[in-house]
Specification:
The chain is α+β, with helices and mostly antiparallel strands and 245 residues long. The chain folds into 2 domains: 140 residues, Jelly Rolls (Sandwich), CATH 2.60.120.10; 86 residues, Arc Repressor Mutant, subunit A, CATH 1.10.10.10. It is globular and about 55 Å long.
């Protein structure tokens, strides 16, 4: 993977939109400057592979903009979506020799990347960074458990509503340009319906039916198949029947 080596790289930390919400938020100005010495920026196009599962770990990343999907490959070569990452999520498995999953950009994505060994050395040096990463790992574990519960216990309607609610809330958190007041958040679906069906354990037809149902009840509006407007957040939350972090 090639990186941005432009001469203004040193200014990235000063202007980073996710610096305070991501793992870097635990660092002082001096520590940020030291971390900045090892960071490199990468812009990925939709569909570009960021890391492959079972390949040696080369770097970790903060997601600055865009959405990344995580896939797991079975022994017979099939891939299933196991997670979605948004800004300011951290991508990669620290203290591992191989990547645990296949990561792909599903939108145009900007990454802030840290070389494997250099980053782990800074974790030992900066305890605040290590603590923030530990918190991130626990949050990721809680989210995975919540999603397991959703997949195992929720109806098709609740699954689709929960995914839209998750994207809407994450979109609002990062100040997406399509977000107006919280009650009217809008966004482009980062995944095609086939991937949504795979992620939720549903068929494409079921996903389409549930989207139509959500539209008819006034919770959402759909433009051009992929642009979603949340017109009634309370109704969407009620149909999701859960709290999404």
């Amino acid at each position: 993977m090639s990186f941005d080596s432009s001469p203004d790289k040193k200014n990235h930390c000063d202007t980073c939109v996710v610096r305070h919400d991501g793992i870097c938020g635990a660092l002082s100005a001096e520590e940020i400057a030291e971390l900045g010495k090892i960071t490199k920026r990468k812009n990925c196009q939709r569909g570009q592979v960021i890391m492959s599962d079972e390949m040696p770990v080369e770097y970790f990343c903060n997601i600055v903009t865009g959405v990344v999907k995580l896939n797991k490959t079975s022994e017979d070569g099939r891939q299933s979506i196991i997670g979605l990452l948004f800004p300011p999520d951290f991508l990669g498995r620290v203290y591992a020799e191989k990547n645990p999953y296949f990561a792909e950009a599903v939108t145009e994505t900007e990454l802030c990347c840290f070389p494997h060994r250099d980053f782990e050395k800074l974790l030992e040096k900066f305890k605040g960074l290590e603590h923030r990463l530990f918190e991130h790992t626990l949050d990721e574990l809680d989210s995975a458990r919540d999603w397991m519960f959703l997949l195992g216990r929720k109806s098709a309607e609740e699954k689709v509503a929960s995914l839209l609610l998750l994207i809407a809330k994450r979109t609002a958190m990062i100040g997406c340009e399509h977000s107006s007041p919280y009650k009217e958040t809008s966004f482009d679906l980062p995944l095609p319906r086939a991937d949504i069906a795979d992620y939720l354990g549903l068929t494409i037809e079921t996903v389409s039916r549930q989207m139509t149902k959500l539209k008819k009840c006034g919770a959402i509006d759909v433009r051009d198949q992929r642009h979603i407007i949340i017109s009634d957040m309370d109704a969407l939350e009620a149909m999701a029947n859960q709290d999404v972090q």
